[in-house]
Design goal:
The complex is a heterodimer of chains A (223) and B (105). By secondary structure, chain A is mainly alpha-helical. Chain A has 4 helices and 2 strands. In chain A, helix 1 packs antiparallel against helix 3. The radius of gyration of chain A is 39 Å and the shape is rod-shaped. With 105 residues, chain B is of the alpha/beta class. The relative contact order of chain B is 0.17. Classes of the chains: A mainly alpha (223), B alpha/beta (105). Chains A and B meet through helix 1, strand 1, strand 2 and helix 3 of A and strand 3, strand 4 and helix 5 of B.
C-alpha cells in the first residue's frame, strides 16, 4: 500500500492518528448506514416487484376491454366520450426520509368520492366494455400511484446504496490502510532516530570520559 | 399541487383521461421525448409512459432517474408488456446489491 507523503515528525503522527480514528468511526457508521439502507431497499423492491406484476396484469385487462370498446364504437364517438373528464385528481407530493434519502410520498384525492362519477359520458352511445375498462382503471389508480412511489424510492435508494458502498470501500481498502502504514512508518522512523541519538550520546560520553581521565594513556603507562 | 401525466399511443392512454390524469398522445419517439421534457419542467410528480413509447427514448428517461420528481414509470401499452418496467427493477437491484437476487428463481 502506498504511504502518504508526509514528514516523519511527532506532530504529523498525532494528526494522522486523529485522522485514523475519525476514518475508523466514519467507516463503521457508513457500514451501518449501508446495511440499513440495504434492508430497507430489499423490502421496498420486493413490494415494488409484486405491485408491478399486479399493476401490469390489471392494466392488460383494461387494455383488452378498451380494445373491445374501440371495436364496438366509432373512434370519434369514443374520443368524444372521453374528451372532457368529470373527475379531477389532486396529487399531494411530500417526501419521507429513509436513512437521509428523501423518497417521495404521493397522496391523491379524487375530487368527488362518488364512484359512479368517473364516467364522463352518457351511457346511450357508448359500449358497456368502455364502462368496464374505466371502472377497472379507476380501481387501479391507487395501485399505479403506489407503484410510482415505490419505484422511485427503489431507484433513489439504489443510487444511495451504491454511493455509500463506494465510500465504505474507499475507507476500508484505501484510506485506513494508507493511514496505518504511514503511522507505522513514522513510528519506526522516530524510534530509529531515538536509537541513533542514544548511541551517539553514549559514544560522546565515552569520548568525554576518555578526555577527562585519559584512561588509555594510564593503561598504557601501567603496562 | 402536483399533476399526473400519461404519455403513450393514443389507444393505450385514452382511458386515463377519465381518471383526471393529463394525457399526452405521442405518435413517435421525438414527440414523446419532447413531451417528456416539457412535463418534467412543469409540476408533474408522476409521468406514466407506455413501454412501446418508452422503448425509443430510454436515454431521455434515464435523465430523471436520480431526481426526486418526476417519477417516470413505464406501464405496459396496448400490445402487452415488453418487460421494460421489470427490467428497471432488475437494474435497480443489480446496482444496489451487485447481483440480481430477485429474479433468479
Amino acid at each position: 500500500m502506498a504511504r502518504l507523503n508526509v514528514n516523519p515528525t511527532r506532530m504529523v503522527l498525532t494528526g494522522l492518528k486523529k485522522r485514523l480514528n475519525t476514518a475508523r468511526r466514519g467507516h463503521k457508521l457508513l457500514k451501518d448506514k449501508r446495511d440499513e439502507l440495504m434492508k430497507k431497499f430489499l423490502e421496498i423492491v420486493r413490494e415494488n416487484k409484486a405491485l408491478r406484476e399486479e399493476a401490469e396484469q390489471k392494466l392488460m385487462q383494461v387494455h383488452s376491454r378498451f380494445v373491445l370498446a374501440r371495436a364496438e364504437m366509432n373512434a370519434e364517438v369514443l374520443e368524444e366520450a372521453l374528451m372532457f373528464p368529470k373527475q379531477k385528481v389532486e396529487l399531494k407530493a411530500s417526501t419521507r426520509n429513509i436513512m437521509s434519502v428523501d423518497v417521495p410520498v404521493l397522496e391523491f384525492h379524487a375530487e368527488s368520492d362518488d364512484e359512479s362519477d368517473i364516467y364522463p359520458y352518457g351511457f346511450a352511445n357508448t359500449s358497456g366494455e368502455l364502462d368496464a375498462a374505466i371502472a377497472t382503471l379507476s380501481e387501479l389508480a391507487p395501485t399505479l400511484l403506489k407503484l410510482a412511489e415505490l419505484e422511485k424510492s427503489a431507484q433513489l435508494l439504489a443510487d444511495e446504496i451504491e454511493k455509500t458502498r463506494r465510500r465504505v470501500n474507499a475507507l476500508e481498502h484505501v484510506l485506513i490502510p494508507n493511514l496505518e502504514e504511514t503511522i507505522k512508518y513514522i513510528v519506526m522512523k522516530l524510534d530509529e532516530n531515538e536509537r541513533g541519538n542514544l548511541t551517539r550520546l553514549m559514544k560522546v560520553k565515552d569520548m568525554m570520559l576518555e578526555q577527562a581521565h585519559r584512561y588509555k594513556e594510564r593503561y598504557m603507562a601501567e603496562k | 399541487m402536483y399533476k399526473i401525466g400519461v404519455i403513450g399511443e393514443k389507444d393505450a392512454v385514452l382511458g386515463f383521461i377519465a381518471l383526471g390524469f393529463s394525457v399526452f398522445p405521442a405518435e413517435n419517439s421525438e414527440q414523446a421525448a419532447e413531451t417528456l421534457r416539457k412535463l418534467a419542467q412543469d409540476r408533474y410528480a408522476v409521468i406514466y409512459i407506455t413501454e412501446q413509447t418508452a422503448a425509443g427514448i430510454e436515454q431521455e428517461i434515464d435523465k430523471y432517474r436520480e431526481s426526486r420528481f418526476p417519477a417516470v414509470i413505464p406501464i405496459p401499452g396496448i400490445q402487452g408488456s415488453l418487460g421494460i418496467g421489470m427490467n428497471g427493477i432488475r437494474k435497480c437491484v443489480e446496482k444496489a446489491v451487485g447481483a440480481d437476487i430477485l429474479f433468479r428463481e
